[in-house]
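Incident log, structure service

09:12 report received: a user says their structure output differs between two submissions of the same chain.
09:20 pulled the input from the user's history:
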Amino acid sequence: MYEKHDIQIGISACLLGEKVRYDGGHKLQNYIHDTLGEFFSFKTFCPEMDIGLGAPRETIRLIQKEDGIRCVGTKTETLDVTEKLVSSAQEQASWHKNLCGYILKKGSPSCGMESVKLYGLNQKKPNLPQMKGVGLYAKVLQDNFPHLPIEEEGRLGDTGLRENFIKRVYAYRHWKDVNQKMLTTDVLTEFHTQYKYVLMSHDQTRARVLGKSLSATVLAKTTASMAELSKTYLAEFMSILKIKASIQNHISVLQHIQGYLKNELIKDDEQELTETIEQYRQGYLPLIVPVTLLKHHFRRYPMPSVQHSKYLSPHPSELMLLNSI
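09:34 re-ran on a clean worker, output below:
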């Protein structure tokens, strides 16, 4: 696992207490600042301040017009900052590429990841917004770096989404590290082996298809370009991880891993593990309990194929992310 602050995450500046909001205030998020701040290095940015709007300032909003979506002032019709926001976002690509994740301010016409108020869709009621917009800065960020783990601060309140986001951050950092060296089919196969069970906990079918596709490519020895193979693999890898893992998929993975111990455990230990997985299925225990029990047994009966898997340790235990899912 990485040292604290080795992983850099971009974040809307207001979420870390910077007074850059339209009203001159901030939206400090204590969990992000106090907890995630112990593990990640944050790069703050406010696109609205970057383009010179200042704080306090007139609020802006997204409007659907004939020539596309525009970002304009709520009081001053001539205040149109569409091109400035898009240009600002493009100019940040030089440091965006070094990130392993991004946390955006929900609902913002510049930073909102999804469900931003979009006006003008209803011609009869132009001032009645629909939650179909995407902040202009956020859209450019997502278009330029489609595999970068991105989340909104409001959605991080959901324990499952929070665990999913942080898991993706660590996996993306691992991927970037692997690609800093000479990527070969052997290296890519080893990477996939480490994440096989993680992928299966998210989508068993797609995980198997990805594994078989990679194996077929390696066996056929027809890889024309490692760069192309790497690109297509990453796209599917991150797409699978973005799917929220289900309890049933976790149970399947836990039982599969348990199978490696069938010739090692005494009857009582095997029964305890089986009952613990069943209690997790019924919702009486969080995922951390069967995972911890499995880690305990594999310390007694080491098996590299399991111990090297990221499934049992997808992120630092101190974050206690498996304690609530």
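09:41 both user submissions now match this output. Likely a transient worker issue. Closing.
09:42 reviewer note: The chain has a mean pLDDT of 94. The CA atoms of residues 55 and 206 lie 47 Å apart.
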